[in-house]
Amino acid sequence: MPRDANGYGAHMVDSQGENDNRTILDVLRDLEALGYSSQFRPLVDRRVECVACGQTSPADQTVLRELHRLEGCSDPDDMLAGVALACPHCGAHGTAVLGYGPEAESVDVDVLGALEDRRGRRD
């Protein structure tokens, strides 16, 4: 798996259809093994909170490093994205679980759409 200069995965990942039996827990465990050990929380107004430092940032200033889309095995409408993020304040690398699709909470959809996508970039 390609890694950036800091050793973190920095490539485009979209697991839709890649491995239908993966769960969100599998994705989070894999990301943690790559060094994404902190957590992020979506907030209203397209903001993200870094749990490591407690700072909030606009989602478009929070760096998206990986994205794994999953659909529920028993319910395809159960659509989740496991994302690997980097905090613009403290540099912490962590994850968030965001819903997408017609049944998702608007806060998740807004944040997911606004994240600064740097998948595949080394900066």
What does it look like?
- By secondary structure, the chain is of the alpha/beta class.
- The chain has one domain (24-117).
- It is built from 2 helices and 7 strands.
- Strands 3-2-1-6-5-4-7 form a 7-stranded mixed beta sheet, with helices on both faces.
- Strand 5 (79-86) and strand 6 (93-99) form a beta hairpin.
- The longest helix has 10 residues, at 24-33.
Using brief descriptors, characterize the structure shown:
disordered N terminus, 7 strands, 123 residues
The chain-level mean pLDDT equals 82
Low-confidence stretches: 1-19
Q: Tally of extended strands? A: 7
Count of helix runs: 2
Order of helices and strands: HEEEEEEHE
Strand content: 25-35%
Radius of gyration based on Cα positions: 14 Å
Overall geometry = globular
Main sheet characteristics: 7 strands, mixed
Fraction in helix: 10-25%
The domain tally reads 1
The largest beta-sheet arranges its strands as: 3-2-1-6-5-4-7
Distance between the termini: 17 Å
User: What structural class do you assign from the helix and strand content?
Assistant: alpha/beta
